[in-house]
Amino acid sequence: MTKLSGIRACVFDAYGTIFDFASAAARCADIPEEKRGALTMLWRDKQLQYTWLRTLQGRYADFWQVTGEALDFALESLGLASPALRERLMQLYLTLEAFPEVPETLRTLRATGFTTAILSNGSPAMLEAVVRGAGLHDLFDAVLSADAVKAFKTHPSVYEYGLRALGVGAHETSFQSSNAWDAYAASAFGMRVVWCNRYGQRPERLPGAPDHEVRSLAELPELLTA
Q: Are 1 and 164 contacting, i.e. CB atoms less than 8 angstroms apart?
């Protein structure tokens, strides 16, 4: 196994990487159990599509608005439209559960001397809520939002902002994402990348190539050397 050497900062995507976006619908008893999986997938797919399309159109709206609009589409499509259910799910999105291995992984990285940060499409208020709700606020040196550049990943300005904010070079940064499109884009930008392929996705046919592929962030510390 070839380790990533010279790394100073470990930067993480949030949704799907640190936090389980499926935990919102999973904790909502008002959704019929047979529709929870479909709602989670459609909500997530539309959320991502809207970020990409708004960035292409130059019509930015923050991630909270985009998330709500994607939820509206999903609820209507599945015959679940209800103001009360919408409000419940949006509030649950602010308290998503962290994946089980996340706290210990972050503690190990910080004890080793790495800077730890989130770089996410999430709005600042969303990220503050979900990080604190999961009890992770003391385990990150920085929580960075794409809102600062009014564009969403995979726009290069988002990755550039992350490096600038942390004061590190691309080659000194290990970027972790469970989203293949994000992992490949960060690699194409010049970052070192560990693709946390939680969902058994196939490799993308896109510019870039992750340096490593893992199934859990618990595998990350042994891949890195400062």
A: no
**Which two tokens mark 161?**
């902002």
Q: 13 catalytic, yes or no?
A: yes
* pLDDT tens per residue across span 134-182: 999 999 999 999 999 999 999 999 999 999 999 999 999 999 999 999 9
Give the separation between CA 108 and CA 102, rounded to whole angstroms. Answer: 10
pLDDT tens by residue, 65-110: 999 999 999 999 999 999 999 999 999 999 999 999 999 999 999 9
What pairs with residue 144 in β-bridges? 119
* Token code pair at residue 154: 């995979």
Identity of the residue numbered 32: P
* pTM assigned to the model: 0.96
Active-site pick, 13, 20, 62, 147: 13
How far lies 121's CA from each of 16, 67, 143, in Å? Answer: 12, 11, 11
Options 3.90.1150.10, 1.10.10.10, 1.10.150.240, 3.40.50.150; CATH of 23-93: 1.10.150.240
What is the token pair recorded at 101? 């291995």
- What is the distance between the alpha carbons of residues 208 and 197, in angstroms, rounded to a whole number? 16
